[in-house]
Every structure is written in structure tokens, then in C-alpha cells.
Design goal:
Blueprint: E1 7-12, H1 21-30, E2 56-63, E3 69-76, H2 85-89, E4 95-97, E5 103-105, H3 115-119, E6 126-128, E7 133-135, H4 141-145, H5 151-155, E8 161-165, H6 166-180, E9 185-187, E10 197-201, H7 219-250
Parallel strand pairs: 1-10
Antiparallel strand pairs: 1-8, 2-3, 4-5, 6-7, 9-10
């Protein structure tokens, strides 16, 4: 797998045991701090994705139509959309597409506008007030560049997580769904231009907590992309360009003579 291969991370929920090894590995590799959380009556911790938690195992109690109880475990995180609304609305270039077609993030460019938070159909990016930055999974792009799997994939003991070329992963996913039968389905390749994180689900998407059945990019995003974003960039460029031109022609701004008048001068 070279650095320009379009890749997909495959999550087989039927193999997940909720060991949370991926959740811990993500924190360790990305040096994310642990923060106090509150007990909500669930084994799931923390309750949701956070600026310091990019990978979360969701715990869900489920009773099927026959009255049979079972646990459903789902690894949640950035879906790395092909047509990513977060990239579309980002005015600073902090969010971008990598050569592998995943969505990277350069926090040094993030201006804390939170446009991506509002735009994401999966409710993934999280804002941290203390740093005035937005955070999310970047699929361990630094590891991918070295031909290494993401930390979460590396840590998975059951094979629930795998990564590889898009065509291979989709073929693997559909083969497993056919084997499972029933309501099993592949989730992630049919909307928002397709995603680079694909699920094998044992049940229909509506069964799973916090998983959009039919995620869509808000129409307002297209208005922003096609009209307001270009205008804002032009306006920003005009301000910077005007300031630079003024400096070249007149030098640094100096105080006006009136600013140097003292109270005694006015008498």
C-alpha cells in the first residue's frame, strides 16, 4: 500500500468485543489527555466523542424482535468522507484531503470558527475552548505515510478493524455481509460521496445509537462553498493586500501629530 493509494478502514462490528484497546491506543499514539468523566449508567466512557477522545467504543443494549438480548458495540470516530462538508466550509485550510483521500487536519491553521462542527453530518469534530481549536481523528496519517496501520487497527485483537485499498475492503465487507445474511449490511459507501471508514453491521442502521440512517450534507454548506467562502477569501485577501501595499508605499503606520499633543499644548 503506497502513499497515494485510496484506502478504507473497515470496522466489522460483529467481531468487536468492546475491549477498548483501540480507544486507548488512539489516546496513547496521539498523546491525548484523559479528563474526568461522569457515570451515566453505561459502561461506555466517555459519553461521547470529545476534543481529547477521537475514538470511542459505543455500548448499546439491544433486544431483537424475538426478545433475545445482546450487546451491540460500535467504534465511533471520523468517517473521512469523500465529499467532506468539513473540508468545504473550512476557511483556513486546516481541514484537507490527504493523498489517500482521507481527511487530514492541520491544527496550526485552525482559527476555531467551528464551521466544521456545524457542517459534519456525523457530529464528529469537537471544539476545545481552552485552545480555541477543533479536533478529530486524522486516521493516523503520519503512520500511513510510513506504511504502518493506524494505532487503532494495530491494537485490535479480534480482527474487527482492518485497513487496505478501497476496492479490497469493499469486497471483503460485502462478502462478510452475504455470509451473515438477515439484516446485515454495509454502511458508509452509499452516501456523502462515500466514506473511507466502512461498517459491517449485523442489523439495519436505525438500530444503532448515534448512527445517522441517511446522513446528508446540509444545503447551507453548498451556499457557503459556492458563494460566501470565495467572497470571504477575496475580502480577506483584499485586507491583507491593502495593508501590505500601504506598508510598501508609506512605511509603518506612525502616530498622527494630534496624538502627540499634551494637555499643556492645548492651552
Amino acid at each position: 500500500m503506497n502513499n497515494n493509494t485510496e484506502i478504507v478502514k473497515l470496522i466489522d462490528t460483529t467481531l468487536c468485543t468492546a475491549c477498548r484497546g483501540c480507544q486507548v491506543a488512539c489516546k496513547q499514539w496521539n498523546e491525548l489527555p484523559g479528563l474526568p468523566t461522569k457515570q451515566t449508567g453505561s459502561y461506555q466512557n466517555p459519553p461521547d466523542l470529545q476534543w481529547n477522545t477521537w475514538t470511542l467504543i459505543r455500548f448499546q443494549e439491544y433486544e431483537d424482535k424475538d426478545g433475545k438480548f445482546q450487546w451491540l458495540f460500535r467504534k465511533d470516530g471520523c468517517m473521512h468522507c469523500t465529499d467532506a462538508s468539513c473540508v468545504k466550509v473550512c476557511p483556513s485550510g486546516s481541514l484537507y484531503y490527504t493523498p489517500n483521500k482521507t481527511v487530514g487536519i492541520d491544527r496550526s491553521k485552525c482559527i476555531g470558527c467551528k464551521e466544521c462542527v456545524a457542517a459534519c453530518p456525523f457530529n464528529v469534530p469537537k471544539y476545545d475552548k481552552a485552545t480555541d481549536k477543533v479536533y478529530k481523528c486524522n486516521l493516523c496519517y503520519s503512520r500511513i505515510q510510513e506504511n504502518l496501520p493506524p494505532a487503532c487497527v494495530k491494537s485490535c485483537l479480534t480482527g474487527a478493524l482492518s485497513i487496505g485499498p478501497k476496492d479490497e475492503m469493499l469486497k471483503k465487507a460485502y462478502a462478510k455481509v452475504e455470509k451473515l445474511g438477515g439484516d446485515a449490511n454495509v454502511y458508509g459507501d452509499k452516501f456523502v460521496g462515500g466514506t473511507h471508514v466502512i461498517y459491517i453491521l449485523q442489523f439495519k442502521p436505525e438500530v444503532y445509537d448515534e448512527l445517522p440512517v441517511s446522513p446528508k450534507v446540509p444545503q447551507s454548506i453548498f451556499v457557503w462553498k459556492d458563494l460566501f467562502k470565495p467572497l470571504s477569501l477575496v475580502a480577506a485577501g483584499g485586507v491583507v493586500g491593502g495593508a501590505l501595499l500601504h506598508y510598501i508605499l508609506h512605511g509603518p503606520k506612525r502616530p498622527d501629530p494630534a496624538d502627540n499633543i499634551t494637555p499643556n499644548d492645548k492651552k
